[in-house]
Structure formats: structure tokens, C-alpha cells
Write a structure and sequence with these properties.
Helix content is 31%, strand content 22%. The longest helix is centred in the N-terminal third of the chain and has 12 residues. The chain has a 7-stranded mixed beta sheet with strand order 2-1-5-4-3-6-7, with helices on one face. The chain has a single domain, classed as Glutaredoxin (3-Layer(aba) Sandwich). By secondary structure, it is an alpha/beta fold. It is built from 5 helices and 7 strands; from the N terminus they run E-E-E-H-H-E-H-E-H-E-E-H. It is globular, with a radius of gyration of 14 Å.
């Protein structure tokens, strides 16, 4: 089952790159949030996507929005990825894929690669926009445009 525009975002808990438990209820429903799911740390497309969110992070913060990245990588891998590319936002480790399933994200490329999908959530915790594309270069721009529309 996938989440559609207007739906409430399901609650979840995952560890971040520092081993700290992130509880979605502490953020979602309190301010706008961008959650982007990506396949794997240190791959060319995923690095490009993360760096595009990094380079525009202040634009999101000025609007009062939080950016959260989620992949199946470990906390340790996220910590290295964050350090290497100076990522200022939270990366969450969904090693079992349980949150990916809650959001209804399917695998791509013949079921071999975890999907790349971005969700923009308003301050009431409702999905206002989602974007599904393997083209990593478009996710940040589309998310920022959607966030700006609600403010």
C-alpha cells in the first residue's frame, strides 16, 4: 500500500547516523518535512542527490522545513557518508526495509535496486507531494518547489 497525496504519514522509529533513535512523531506534524528514500550511500546517483540537498539545505531551513534521508545502509555507513560529504541533515538506517514498506516504495530495475522516492509533508503531517524517479538530480528541486508552495 502506498501513501498518496492528502494521506497522513505513518509513525516510525529508526536510528540515525549517530545511533540516536529518531521518532517521526517528534517532527512530522510539527513542521514541514522532506523525506527522501535513496538506494545506497557512496554510489554516484545517491551521492549527487545527498549533495544537492546539502547545497540547498539552508533554503529548506529558512522555510522551517526538515530534511531526512533514509536508506537500507547501516548507521556506521551513514556516519561515514555524512562526514565525507558534510551532510547537515539526518540520515536514517532502515536496514530491514520496514519504513520503506510503510511508505509503499517499490524496488526498481527489475526488483534489484531499492526505489528512489521523495515525500514532502506539510506541518499537519499530510503528504502534499511525492516524486518517484531514478534521476537523482531532480529530487531536491522538486521537493523545494513543493515546500515553497505551502509557505
Amino acid at each position: 500500500m502506498s501513501i498518496e497525496k492528502g494521506d497522513s504519514i505513518p509513525s516510525f522509529q529508526l536510528n540515525d547516523q549517530n545511533g540516536i533513535v529518531f521518532n517521526s512523531d517528534d517532527v512530522i506534524g510539527k513542521k514541514p518535512v522532506v523525506i527522501y528514500f535513496y538506494p545506497k550511500n557512496f554510489t554516484p546517483g545517491c551521492t549527487k542527490e545527498a549533495c544537492s540537498f546539502r547545497d540547498s539545505y539552508e533554503d529548506f531551513k529558512e522555510i522551517g522545513a526538515e530534511v531526512v534521508g533514509i536508506s537500507g545502509d547501516s548507521e556506521k555507513s551513514h556516519a561515514k557518508f555524512t562526514a565525507k560529504y558534510n551532510l547537515p541533515f539526518i540520515l536514517l538506517a532502515d536496514s530491514t526495509g520496514k519504513v520503506r514498506k510503510k511508505f509503499g516504495i517499490k524496488k526498481s530495475l527489475l526488483g534489484l535496486v531499492p526505489g528512489r522516492e521523495t515525500f514532502v509533508i506539510d506541518a499537519q503531517g499530510k503528504l502534499i507531494f511525492k516524486f518517484n524517479s531514478l534521476d537523482a538530480s531532480k529530487h531536491m528541486k522538486k521537493a523545494l518547489k513543493a515546500i515553497k508552495k505551502i509557505n
